[in-house]
Amino acid sequence: RTSAQHMNRIVERLLTLARLDAGVDVVRSQQVDVGHLAEECAAAVRPLAEARGLRLRVQHDPTLPASTDPDKLREVLMNLLHNAIQ
To answer: Which H or E run contains 1?
Structure first.
């Protein structure tokens, strides 16, 4: 299961890069609560971090809005967290 999840992440990253290179990926900019999004991402990878003996905490300004594409930001944060854990 872990290997399948890892392969899925790799394929998703490659597809994202291909869409960006082709210019078909559209950015949907909107107001995003960055702290809340970071908490969601951390919660998703926390079991993986703990399995490796790591503690994952998110410290953020609760009033940190941004105008960005939440899906793209989530993808960036998840990639950064996975890379940091590995």
So the answer is: none
Task: Give tens-digit pLDDT for 10-35.
Answer: 888 788 778 777 877 777 889 999 99
Burial class for 2, CB neighbours closer than 10 Å (0-12, 13-18, 19+): exposed
- How far apart (Å, rounded) are the C-alpha atoms in residues 14 and 68? 22
Q: How many CB atoms lie within 10 A of CB 32?
A: 19
* 32, 73 Cβ separation under 8 angstroms: yes
SS3 content of the chain, % helix, strand, coil (to 5): 65, 10, 25
